[in-house]
Amino acid sequence: MTVTMNVLRPPRVVLYSDGLVIVDASKQLKLTDAETGETVASMETYLTGQPPTAEPRPGAPMVTDVPTTVLGVRGKDGKMLEVRVPALDQVADFYPKELSEAKKLMDGLATRAATAGTDYVATRVRMVAEGAASAEGKPAPWPAGVPEPSGTVDPIWHKDIEGAAVSAITKAVPAGQEYGRSLFKTGSGALFVLSWRYLLPDE
Please, what is the end-to-end C-alpha distance for the chain in angstroms? Predict the structure, then answer.
């Protein structure tokens, strides 16, 4: 994972109280009130009583360099119940089955959104400029209306933007564009790779 990817990476699946499901900050789906209630109730059942960070049972194989799954649900008291599960996909059999069931439930929403959902767009964007002094290729002029990096860039600079700047950056760097092609030169001559994603409603 690059620094840029870490800053831009959104939650895999989010379900809001109004039934809105957002997947990878790129697809959306609307659940019924009944489906929303059932999903939240199931997640509460699966996660209640689990430790903040789950540990596999003795005998689990050692797995390194894989993601930690973070499962969470906001309870009726308004508090967020969150469980971190290292290497859940790789050693699922060594964890309580409730954790796998919780992930399966959310993965199912992601699959539905991918097949039956619509594109997610928002009025606010998180942009990231990564220094690319030694990058090859012909840079484009910095997009008009998009803030230029200022202050410290070590090794990235990021900013949440809205208004006209959103239209400017989404036009200059279309969604899904090849990472290496979004090379731009600022007015001062500095080179940056410019990336962005839509912000979620709660960000």
Answer: 22
